[in-house]
Design a protein that fits this description.
alpha/beta, 29% strand, globular
């Protein structure tokens, strides 16, 4: 099964996909097979977080908890929110020695109260899988202090379609929001587990969070240093991911 456009999916459908993938995702990260997580995504997220007050941090879409565990080392309190019950079950095991993490298994959009407002938030490889990005942005704004930073890493909407090869498919239009099904893959491994990501133009990300009360503070387009790039099966011709740091007004 290849890459193809699909109908818009709700949280229930997306959760089933991530439940099926959770164990494999944990294996990929734990083994170091996911080069991009270890050498690009996590380091860039922490670099962007360096200016933030990390007293209380929201981890929006914590997945199987590997980033969450590292985040807890620099925070007094982490609240990790995850839709996938299977992923969250794995995350609690991954983070079992971190006593400053609490887990919430529900859609982030629509959450009204998580105790005192968070001083920062992260969304690591979450935004391009969020069916209701507007709701997510509004919830983040509601749950954060004024002046707090939200850091997000996600697939680069300008270059990911080219990297995955669907840029020239007849159904692709850069300006549209498009739900796309494909077998989940990392550079060193392809699986037969289908997941959905949502293409949105970069402008949409900026405007949606602007409407929710966030201003862009920094944009980062990370590329691997030569030593790391040599670990990949192919050279990077362009950024595959983008990092954005927003500040809440």
């Amino acid at each position: 099964m290849g890459i193809h456009v699909c109908q818009k999916k709700d949280n229930s459908a997306l959760t089933k996909e991530w439940n099926r993938l959770a164990a494999e995702r944990r294996r990929q990260i734990e083994s170091g097979e996911d080069l991009s997580f270890e050498h690009i995504i996590a380091p860039t997220a922490f670099k962007l977080l360096a200016v933030a007050d990390t007293f209380k941090v929201l981890d929006i879409g914590c997945g199987t908890g590997e980033f969450t565990r590292r985040l807890a080392e620099m925070s007094d309190e982490v609240v990790a929110v995850e839709l996938s019950q299977t992923s969250l079950g794995i995350a609690t095991g991954v983070c079992r020695e971190s006593e400053n993490i609490s887990f919430v298994n529900k859609p982030f959009e629509g959450i009204n109260d998580l105790g005192p407002p968070a001083t920062a938030a992260v969304a690591v490889m979450t935004l391009m899988t969020a069916s209701n990005l507007e709701g997510l942005a509004v919830s983040a704004s509601r749950l954060m202090v004024s002046g707090g930073f939200l850091v997000a890493l996600f697939t680069h909407p300008c270059f990911w379609p080219r990297y995955w090869g669907y840029e020239k498919y007849p159904w692709f239009n850069y300006e549209d929001e498009i739900f796309i099904e494909a077998p989940f893959s990392i550079s060193n491994r392809k699986t037969d587990l289908i997941t959905t990501h949502i293409h949105r133009p970069l402008e949409a990300y900026i405007q949606i969070f602007r409407d929710a009360g966030f201003l862009v503070d920094r944009i980062c387009e990370p590329l691997p240093e030569p030593r790391i790039e040599n670990l990949y099966p192919a050279k990077w011709q362009f950024p595959r991911f983008i990092g954005i740091r927003w500040q809440k007004l």
